[in-house]
Amino acid sequence: MTAQGRALPADDTADLRDIGFRSLDFSELALRVEDELGDELNFDAPGLRRIATVGDVLDFIEQLQSA
């Protein structure tokens, strides 16, 4: 987000829509996580629809890493 000139949220409860986090941002984040892990992430669209806050994104990525 900072690379796009946007401020980072103050905490994990920030609503993604309020901070301007779009689906494209999530895709970019997922690609970076895959690069870091050296493995492709396996996730489904219904799981993505439940993500509403920064904390949800962090929890989602943590779940993917432990799978």
Write up what this structure looks like.
Helices cover 49% and strands 0% of the residues. The chain has 3 helices and no strands. The chain has helices at residues 23-37, 45-49, 54-66. The longest helix has 15 residues, at 23-37. The mean pLDDT is 80.
Which shape, going by the Cα principal axes? globular
Residues in β-strands, percent: under 5%
Q: How many beta-strand runs?
A: 0
Q: What's the SSE pattern?
A: HHH
How far apart lie the N and C ends?
27 Å
Instruction: Give the helix/strand class.
Output: mainly alpha
Q: Name the quaternary structure.
A: single chain
Arithmetic mean of pLDDT: 80
Continuous helix count:
3
Radius of gyration: 12 Å
Helix content: 40-55%
Low-confidence stretches: none
The largest sheet, given as strand count, sense and whether it forms a barrel, is: none
Protein topology:
Elements (H helix, E strand, L loop, with lengths): L22 H15 L7 H5 L4 H13 L1
Q: Keyphrases for this structure?
A:
0% strand, mainly alpha, 49% helix, 67 residues, 3 helices
Short description:
With 67 residues, the protein is mainly α. The protein contains three helices and no strands.
